[in-house]
Specification:
With 434 residues, this protein is an alpha/beta fold. It folds into three domains: 4-78, MurE/MurF, N-terminal domain (Udp-n-acetylmuramoylalanyl-d-glutamate--2,6- Diaminopimelate Ligase, Chain: A, domain 1), CATH 3.40.1390; 94-301, UDP-N-acetylmuramoyl-L-alanine:D-glutamate ligase (3-Layer(aba) Sandwich); 310-432, Protein-Tyrosine Phosphatase, Chain A. Helices cover 33% and strands 21% of the residues. It has 16 helices and 19 strands. The chain has helices at residues 4-12, 44-49, 65-69, 79-93, 107-118, 136-142, 162-170, 185-188, 191-198, 200-207, 219-224, 275-287, 292-301, 328-339, 360-372, 401-408; strands at residues 17-18, 29-31, 54-57, 73-75, 98-102, 124-126, 150-154, 174-177, 211-215, 230-235, 242-246, 252-257, 263-270, 310-314, 317-322, 345-351, 378-382, 396-398, 416-421. It has a nine-stranded mixed beta sheet with strand order 6-7-5-8-9-10-11-12-13, sandwiched between helices. The termini are far apart.
């Protein structure tokens, strides 16, 4: 078995690591992961033939491979654990600050805003897309080059103990929890479980003399972060280190930052629910010495992608596409914001919310009830979580997005303002594709 130090020497002389045979670069190290439905150990020969310098396996799938590939085929006890351990070892070599970000809603948007702001002063490496799980986080860490000046790691979780396990190899110096809400309650075991699981980041920071960025408006997070020696606060509260307020006018969110010279930031983000995401980025920028005009420029230049709070023109219609993910708190925030939109014809297309366990029936009924009191021309619900609406005459129900798309493409909508919101499984953005 190869020890970690020897593997790290191979890593530093490689062209990087990958877990996918479809994108192997010449000189990559291939980690052959396995799961319930796949076993990449069987692709070891393919990876080596495609240019990998070495392959890490925990099973040798075919007799003769060791003799054929020699030292390029490295057998370990657990490939995933070795990937994580290697990333932790690499983290120890980095001399830059590391900020860990988690939360029920807004993790990716916050991460991207903070990265945009800090990039005005530092060479920043941040999680790409949403590679925020037990595989994506090690890959993110291992992608960080020695020239890094600041690293931002997004950490997702759907059960207790997960954030704590990430902290073992991310070793954040700073932390930020966007919020806590009813997300992944099936895995966390209810709302209190969500709070306990997400605040594992706080417990790590408290034990390791870390610092935290925290919303002064969030009573739960303020209470849970009390043990951390330094809290850098943001929000509407006048006493916060960085305070501001949201504008109630305009299609896009504008934020007024308090200070000696009040700054107005006009964002490309739809919805006041993005206020705390923006404020956390402003706060981080201010704390790390980015000039306010540079902070303003970075945030105003940021345009959301990947189906997150995107404003899209579709013929004569305006669509707010927020279909990357959904849980009860984010769904209600999106509906509350949409309620304030002034338009003659308004329509919502809402997909079911996943991983809610015993909370699912009540939360889906609560979302439907919320729309009952909104001035909407059409209400459309998608997915089995809303199947109690199958025979409800006041709404339209579709079992899946494929059925919805077939109907949607046959309609002649004119001058509608539409909110599309649902969990990733729904893939609601597909109704707009050809």
């Amino acid at each position: 078995m190869m020890d970690l130090r020897a593997l790290y020497d191979l890593f530093t002389s490689s062209t990087g690591v990958t877990t996918d045979t479809r994108n192997i670069g010449k000189g990559n190290i291939f980690f052959a992961l396995k799961g319930e439905k796949f076993n990449a150990n069987t692709f070891a020969a393919e990876a080596l033939n495609n240019g990998a310098s070495h392959v890490i396996v925990d099973e040798i799938a075919e007799d003769g491979w060791k003799g054929k590939f020699g030292d390029r085929l490295i057998l370990v006890q657990d490939v995933l654990r070795m990937l994580q351990d290697l990333s932790g070892y690499h983290r120890l070599q980095l001399k830059c600050p590391v900020l860990g970000i988690t939360g029920s809603n807004g993790k990716t948007t916050t991460k991207e805003l903070v990265a945009a702001v800090l990039s005005k002063k530092f060479r920043v490496y941040a999680t790409k897309g949403n590679l925020n799980n037990h595989i994506g986080i090690p890959l993110t860490l291992l992608s960080i080059k020695p020239d890094v000046e600041f690293a931002i790691i997004e950490m997702g979780a759907n059960h207790q103990g997960e954030i704590a396990s990430y902290c073992d190899y991310v070793r954040p110096d700073y932390g930020l929890i966007t919020n806590v809400g009813l997300a992944h309650t099936e895995g966390f075991g209810g709302f209190e479980g969500v709070v306990k699981g997400k605040t594992e980041l706080y417990r790590y920071l408290a034990a390791n003399k870390g610092k935290v960025f925290v919303s002064a408006d969030n009573e739960i997070l303020m209470e849970k972060s009390k043990a951390i020696s330094e809290r850098i606060t943001y929000g509407r509260a006048a006493g916060a280190y960085c305070s501001g307020k949201a504008s109630g006018t305009g299609e896009f969110l504008s934020v007024f930052i308090s200070g000696q010279a009040e700054t107005i930031i006009h964002t490309n983000l739809v919805g006041e629910y993005n206020f705390e995401n923006v404020m956390s980025a402003v706060c981080a920028g201010k704390y790390f010495g980015v000039q306010m005009q540079e902070i303003k420029r970075a945030i105003e230049d940021y345009t959301p992608t990947n189906n997150r709070s995107q404003k899209i023109t579709y013929g004569s219609n305006t669509i707010i596409l927020d279909a990357y993910n959904a849980n009860p708190s984010s769904m209600k925030a999106a509906l509350h914001n949409f309620e304030g939109v002034q338009a003659a014809n308004k329509m919502v297309i809402l997909g079911e919310m996943m991983e809610l366990g015993e909370y699912a029936p009540a939360e889906h009924r609560s979302i439907k009830a919320m729309t009952d009191n909104m001035p909407l021309t059409k209400r459309i619900f998608v997915g089995t979580g809303f199947n109690f609406l199958r025979n409800e005459p006041s709404v339209m129900y579709f079992e899946n997005s494929a059925e919805l798309k077939k109907w949607f493409r046959q309609q002649q909508f004119d001058n509608y303002y539409v909110l599309i919101k649902g969990s990733r499984k729904n893939e609601l953005e597909k109704i707009l594709s050809d």
